Amino acid sequence: MPVLRETEFVAEVVWLGHVPFGQSLRAQSVDSLALDFSGDSGARHEGVNRASCVRVKNLYPVGTEIRNVRQLSILSAEEMSIIASELGSESLDPAFLGASIVLKGIPDFTHVPPSSRLQIADGLTLTIDMENRPCVLPGREIEADIPGHGAAFKPAATGRRGVTAWVERPGSVSLGDRMALYVPDQRGWTPLRA
User: Fold this and answer.
1) Could you report the per-residue pLDDT of 142-159, keeping only the tens digit for each?
2) Per the domain annotation, does 10 fall within a domain?
3) Could you say which of 52, 80, 108, 127 would form a disulfide bridge with 60 (CB–CB 3.0 to 4.6 Å)?
């Protein structure tokens, strides 16, 4: 019996970005990405392993070598539209957010269950780690191009920042590709209390 259930949702890839290694989170728009087990070659978050950051500081001292489940940042076009509206803008450039992939067609995308899979027909499969909580870095990129709007990003993006993911099966992804969503076939966690 499969432990991943295919859903009715198939999303279209509407934007792709490469975030070069360096100080800035800003992505460069591209038409396709070749992804291997370490993610996007030459990208800021490339690697099979990574140094732990403040997001897991309750588990490890910052800088501890851990598995890299944050190779990619995947966002929803629909959620980005809501963020843009709350920022008082017609649109929001995914480059400001360090996006790897922007998808259209999966409702409430940021809250897709961890361990869900996104798969292209040719086999490329991405495993969703978890919600990507908003931080100040995209706000700095927004502020640089749209002064007066950067500080509003974090509250506007809460619950809409997309997810982080890692490459389970290598392959390539191009604009216009369609990704099917598979979710874990299990009930929600409801711990018993004594």
Assistant:
1) 888 888 888 899 999 999
2) yes
3) 52
